[in-house]
């Protein structure tokens, strides 16, 4: 699969952009475990134009992350074009347009998946961005706004016609949010549409290696994007690649391996954000690495309250000792449950 001149190989796996999740330290971990392409947290066009500190900070990318895309969202053409140019100056490999976020405060303004209510504006905006930057432009969107407007086949054709170089489709409508089961049927229809010649990346409910393999085989997508299932389980990329290569499931990570992973993630977070901020922002990840451990309430409380680095590392060492040999029965189900609210 190729996006412009970017060669991603066969059946690449993508880390989806997720607010407050896919920061540089988490991306570093996902890259270590086999993510072929990653995206920044999605960035507000208004924030970039106003030079808002939090928005500009999200532009920070590193060479070891490549290929990497910066994703932007907004509801007005001129600010989105300007934001795309600002993002391009940060030297990503791809600019991705978010036409998929279903969160009310974004969609209600006509941004994210709210744009699916105004396809002509979506197409015009996309063309303006494609014309304004020199690097590949891609789009992430959904099946439609609601059950009565699943128009992704038409949207895909029109977006391709104005120059996007890959399309990611989440198998739900905006109205569904993250509820129900992702429907990949229309994703397959887009992929198998004779008019389409750009890569089609499927997204939605990929929470196991078997599920990824099934979607590749059944719908013929060029790549798969994984979102919520990576949260607390970034090694899912390695699991999927192992399964695709061998047809067998990779052995689950041991508790010791998870502890070492948590330490590596912590250290990267400290390096990038400093100790205090690094600890605060790691709290959302730490306990999810150990989801399913019995009698964990007291340890979990310590993980999310201490601000002492030495103590935090000691708690992780204690987890490795106390739970040596323990393995949750169904890690895929555990991870799916953790991520239902993301």
SSE arrangement:
Elements lengths: L1 E2 L2 E2 L5 E3 L8 H9 L4 E3 L3 E2 H5 L3 H5 L10 E6 L3 H13 L4 E6 L4 H4 L11 H14 L4 E6 L9 H10 L5 E4 L14 H7 L8 E4 L5 H11 L3 E4 L9 H11 L8 H19 L1 H15 L7 H7 L5 H14 L8 H8 L4
Parallel strand pairs: 3-4, 3-11, 4-6, 5-6, 6-7, 7-8, 8-9, 9-10, 10-11
Antiparallel strand pairs: 1-2
Helix pairs in contact: 1-11, 4-6, 7-8, 9-10, 11-12, 11-14
Structure notes:
- The chain is an alpha/beta fold and 342 residues long.
- The protein has 2 domains: 2-246, TIM Barrel; 255-322, Orthogonal Bundle (Non-ribosomal Peptide Synthetase Peptidyl Carrier Protein, Chain A), CATH 1.10.1200.
- Helices cover 44% and strands 12% of the residues.
- The chain has helices at residues 24-32, 45-49, 53-57, 77-89, 104-107, 119-132, 152-161, 185-191, 209-219, 236-246, 255-273, 275-289, 297-303, 309-322, 331-338; strands spanning 2-3, 6-7, 13-15, 37-39, 43-44, 68-73, 94-99, 137-142, 167-170, 200-203, 223-226.
- Strands 3-4-6-7-8-9-10-11 form an 8-stranded parallel beta barrel, surrounded by 6 helices.
- Helix 9 (209-219) packs across helix 10.
- It is globular, with a radius of gyration of 20 Å.
- The protein starts with a strand and ends with a helix.
- 45% of the residues are buried.
- The model is unreliable at 333-342 (pLDDT under 50).
Count of all domains: 2
CATH architecture of the largest domain: Alpha-Beta Barrel
CATH class of the largest domain: Alpha Beta
Multimeric state: single chain
Could you tell me the strand content as a percent range?
5-15%
Radius of gyration in whole Å, from Cα?
20 Å
Q: How would you characterize the largest beta sheet?
A: 8 strands, parallel, barrel
Number of helices: 15
Order of helices and strands: EEEHEEHHEHEHHEHEHEHEHHHHHH
Spans of at least 5 consecutive residues whose pLDDT stays below 50 are: 333-342
CATH fold category name of the largest domain: TIM Barrel
| Distance between the ends | 29 Å
Helical fraction equals: 40-55%
Tally of DSSP β-strands: 11
Q: Based on helices, strands and strand pairing, what is the structural class? A: alpha/beta
